[in-house]
Amino acid sequence: MNEIQILDCTLRDGGYINDWNFTNHQIDKIIYSLNKANVDIIECGYLNDKNGLVSNSTLFKDIDSVDKVFKGKGYKSLKKVVMINFGDFDIDNLPNKSITCIDGIRLAFHKKDLGNIFSHAQKIIEKGYELFFQPMITKNYTDLEFLQMLKEVNDLNPHAFYIVDSFGSMSLNEFSRYINLADNNLSESIYLGYHSHNNMQLAFSNAISLSLSKLNRNIILDSSIYGIGRGAGNLNTELIFDFMNKTFHKNYETMPLLEIIDDFLNSLMHKNPWGFSPAQFLSAAFNCHPNYASYLINKNTKHIAEINQMLSLIPEDKKISFDKKLIEKIYLDNYVASMKNSLSDDFEVDKNKKILLIASGTSVNDYENLIEDKIKTNEYVVISLNHKSKFDTDFNFFTNQKRFDEFANEIDLSKSVISSNIKTGKSVFSVFDLSEYNSLENQIFINVALIAINLFLKKNFTEIEIAGLDGYDINKIENYNYNETNQVLDKKALEEENQILLSNLRLLNEKILIQFITPSIFKNELKLKIIGVIPARFKSSRFEGKPLCIINGIPMIKRTYEQAKKSKLLDELIVATEDERIKDYCDKENIPVILTSDNCLTGTDRIAEVSKEKHFDLYVNIQGDEPVIDPKSIDEVISQYKIHQDKYIAYNLYKIIDDETEVTSNTIIKTIVNEKDELMYMSRLGVPFNKSQNKVKYKKQVCVYGFTKKALDVFSSRNKTINEQFEDIEILRFVDMGYTVKMKETFVDSIAVDVSSDIKKVETFLSERGLN
Question: Which stretches of the chain drop beneath a pLDDT of 70?
Fold first, then answer.
């Protein structure tokens, strides 16, 4: 019998599963186990001088990095090879074999590189290495092309020539034909190698067939522990070892390999699965690159029969190499394909209500009470997206054929709105034209949440609230709030989907306010929209008409507006007033103004009214009676919000008091904060009371507030709280209700105009600084 050798490529092909991020310890353990198992050849990984590393990786920058793996280990009898993908490593930088422990170089290339590959291959041989010559995708060669290549291979005289079943689709007849062509036309001194992928589970049977053939040469069979490898994986080393032992009385040891599986590979498979799948089967059946089928299956919107049909549309000349733009076009053309005759786009909702979308993320389970409370207000049109929600929703909204088929028998079809690409014989409430809502500014939407948001944008809604749009957590098995049997586990696919979602959410958020009411990985990535609001009440009890009082010839409201406009972080700035006289003045001066009702008890109530019409992430309350307000104080509040966002319901500033008379003044509000600068209490008294011998640093409130939408909803939902009534300090309402307000120390100050005599203080301030 001619010699049969086993080449294990766990460290190289396994890198497709973990991005070659093997730790040094894992590398050592795998090599130790393979050596103990008596493997003939071990492939250590790739050489890549562009992206390779020098440690904790099997994507090596240079030969020195590979040598370090074996330094001092004593694996002298173990033949060691490393692979180079043509174009990834400069052969001229390869040292001579005499100064390295590496025995051979496997040179992999595609048919398009055939004209250049032999000169590179010759250099490797001249440097003293055994050359393993590996033309990828053997089925890509006609018999005539294959024979012509063999002729050139004979002239090259490498150590081994490979038959490579890149798509795992070679039937036994096809495989045997290539074996016979190679065996009958290749120099007998050249080993014949077989590298298999396992898309159709043929790797083991073809390897057995080859090992039982009576060839005129020696054979190398490639394998990997646990079959680890991209997609369907490879021939299992432990299986071929067992077969060789039983059939040819070899002395391979399988137990060290089983220990590697138990210690390391088993958990890796759970995180990043490989092995047989419908995607791998279909890629083999169509003899196309496996990424085509994976791309379509990972979209998780089409049944396998439809994916089969889409794969049939790939042109023959495009099958070998993955063309993402091509498969995206095929998918989108198919996805948007509409049943135009079924359109009944009469989906209209109450414009006086807000929209609450409920997506399928797991956060809806954790925030069930919050969502229920919103629904109970009867202020929302509630819509579930591509699933049957646990909540009482007004509509079910589907754009995904698989999801609709899954839930069609469980939902109320008379409340169901579906897109025109969904095929069904069932009667539903409405069928909308998907092509009207699945794009914006040349960006195509596939995700149901994006389509729903765009639909309501085009129906002139200005704000959307959404729960359960968590984003895909690549470290979680379960990303749905229901038992989803068709999970996408491909981490790269999930990461890509997150990026697509984020970029399109950003685009939509420029045109409609998207509010996440449950945690989402996207929330902090969207541009925050911030508005400054200047409440201006004409009927002030202490100073009627105060906003229009004249300070050095200019009405106070204009001075306040001009100062606030200097803030660098406001997206919009408006005046909010109940009085037509203030509104008329602002209109005349081109100052944005909104007329509110006359029953607002406080400035915060006035801003809460504004929030019903203007939709922003943060509302900054800028006191209308502070005509020399420093815009830095506005930016300080906004900066704190950008850091903490919805961790706190509201934001405010304080300043250390340096004028002792302010401590006893009941118009100056003193502030007590904890060590995290969170508000504990405010009072018009000089708090905290000092019983110690230390000097107290009293803090006063600086009246620039930042309110989230939730803060304004909470504030306007009830009357004054006990301490708020006693102290007459609005922000105490949040403290009394158990909410946390974030404070920040500031070093800027301002002058409030409470009574007419304060005008002189402002004019003196302006005069001292040479200002008008």
Answer: 1, 301-302, 335-343, 345, 474-490, 541-542
- Paired with 135 in beta bridges are 109
CA distances from 388 to 392, 416, 455 (A): 10, 10, 20
Contact 674, 648 (CB under 8 A): no
Residue 195's alpha-carbon distances to 89, 158, 176, 304, 419, in angstroms, are 22, 17, 14, 29, 46
532/130 Cα distance (integer angstroms): 73
Give the single-character DSSP code of 138: G
**Residue 545 φ then ψ, to 5°:** 75, 15
In whole angstroms, give the CA distance from residue 771 to residue 421: 66
| Distance of alpha carbon 735 from alpha carbon 744, whole angstroms | 16
Alpha helices in 163-272 (DSSP H): 172-185, 203-212, 237-248, 255-260, 266-271
Conformation bin of residue 31: beta by default, left when phi > 0, alpha when psi is -120 to 50? alpha
Distance CA 583, CA 579 (A): 6
pLDDT of 151? 97
Query: DSSP per residue over 648-673, as a string?
Result: SSEEEEEEE---HHHHH-TTSPEEEE
Residue 186 Cα distances to 152, 192, 220, 737, angstroms: 10, 9, 15, 85
pTM to 2 decimals? 0.59
The predicted pLDDT at position 52 comes to: 94
Which residue carries 């493997």 as its tokens?
39
d(CA 648, CA 163): 63
At residue 347, the pLDDT reads: 84
Q: d(Cα 63, Cα 95) in Å, to the nearest integer?
A: 8
Contact of 178 with 141, CB cutoff 8 Å: no
Burial 711-733 (b: 16+ CB within 10 A, else e): bbbbbbeeeeeebbeebebbbbb
DSSP state of 689: P
DSSP 310-367: HHTTS-GGGSSS--HHHHHHHHHHHHH---GGG--------TTSEEEEE-S-THHHHT
In angstroms, the CA 80 to CA 58 distance is: 13
Residue 282's contacts (CB-CB under 8 Å, 6 or more residues apart) are 293, 304, 307, 308, 311
Instruction: Tokens for 12, please give them.
Output: 């190289």
CA distance 342 to 663: 74
Spatial distance between the Cα atoms of 324 and 419, rounded to a whole number of angstroms: 25
- The backbone torsions φ and ψ at residue 482, rounded to the nearest 5 degrees and listed phi first, read -130, 175
Quick one: pLDDT at residue 312?
85
For the record, the structure tokens of 192 come out as: 């014949």
> By CB neighbour count within 10 A (0-12 exposed, 13-18 middle, 19+ buried), where does 568 fall?
exposed
Alpha-carbon distances of 194 from 31, 77, 166, rounded to whole Å:
22, 23, 11
Q: What pLDDT does 336 receive? A: 66
Q: Is 231 left (phi over 0), alpha (psi -120 to 50) or beta?
A: left
Residue position matching structure tokens 């057995």: 208
Long-range own/partner contacts, residues 539-546 (CB < 8 A, 24 or more apart) = 539/578, 539/579, 542/754, 542/755, 543/753, 543/754, 543/755, 543/756, 545/581, 546/624, 546/625, 546/753
Concatenated DSSP letters of 472-519: --TT-S--SSS--SS----HHHHHHHHHHHHHHHHHHHTTSEEEESS-
- Selection from 743, 717, 739 nearest residue 649 by Cα: 739
- Angstrom distance (rounded) from CA 140 to CA 192: 18
